[in-house]
Amino acid sequence: MPLERTLLYTGHEFTVEHVRSHAHQGPDWSSPYTLESRRIIFPVGRTVLDVRTGNGTWLVDGLTAMQFCDALVYQLRPVVHAARHSMVVSRHRPSRADAAPVFCLLSPRSLYRVHAAQRQLRAGDAGADAIASLVDELGTSRRQLPLTGAVMRAKRLLAETADREAKLPMHEVADAVSRSPFHLARSFRQQTGLSLHQYRQHLRLAAAMERLVDGDSDLAGIAHDLGYCSQSHLGAVFRCEVGVTLGEARRVLAGSARI
Questions:
Q1: Cα distance between residue 113 and residue 107, in whole Å
Q2: Residue 168 and residue 161: Cα distance in Å, rounded?
């Protein structure tokens, strides 16, 4: 899979790169990849792909951070065939070769910190401490288990449509995966730790941040495209979930457009 790498930071503990991955075409799994060093992959753009390692398969979206150990063998299968942007932290400290991979869902607040830290590093500011804090935070985050059945299908549908069918009714999601709304809602929360509504809300906020990173300053347009009834509605949700206003986020993330 072709990669474009931009070095953002290198230090004694870790190295940080922005990586742009070009998805291979077709529905098949990629050839196996083997990692040479321990690394943590933070999302900084829309992503929907399957990751297979060992006996497990995970659905990875724009909220999922991945922690891989040394010598891990894995395969990818993109669900959305588009370039994928990630911030990759390579750890210099050795890790156990048999350690299991870790997949965690980031909160909107944490995802904003990822974007802001990358912005700092690109600007030559002190962003290394922010990266170290995010890495440490993953150790206490809820780990995602491989999903199967209706929950996997529902998560995939919401991840695929978050930026174009934001008003998709939940009963239609349940119908699409052949479950009742009640049973799907209960299973989804049990397996992911989030309600269906929370998960979709977080995806929409991730999409809003990506638009700001790309230099989109039309906050009303972003709100409309993501299914909010007004800019003030998106602003209220954004401030509650992310901890800053839309205007502040636009100021902080402006200029951190794609490398």
A1: 10
A2: 8
**Count of helices and strands (H, E) across the chain:** 9, 10
Residue 106: its H or E element: none
- Look up residue 216 and give its two tokens: 């989109």
Pairing between β-strand 3-10 and β-strand 56-61 as defined by DSSP bridges: unpaired
Distance (Å, whole) CA 78 – CA 69: 22
Q: How far, CA to CA in Å, does 30 sit from each of 20, 33, 52, 148?
A: 17, 8, 10, 21
* pTM of the predicted protein model: 0.91
What is the C-alpha to C-alpha distance for residues 22 and 38, in angstroms, rounded to an integer? 22
Please write the tens of the pLDDT for every residue from 22-63: 765 667 888 898 888 889 999 998 889 999 988 889 999 999
For each of the domains in the chain, give its residue range(s) and CATH number, in order of start.
3-138 (2.60.120.10), 149-253 (1.10.10.60)
In the block, residue with structure tokens 């939940």: 170
DSSP summary character for residue 255? T
What are 122's two structure tokens? Answer: 């690109």
Phi-psi region of 193 (alpha: psi -120 to 50; beta: other; left: phi over 0): left
CA–CA gap between residue 65 and residue 85 (Å, rounded): 12
- Give the pair of three-digit tokens for residue 70: 């040394």
Integer CA distances (angstroms), 186 to 171, 215, 243, in order:
13, 38, 28
Strands (E), 73-212: 73-78, 84-91, 102-105
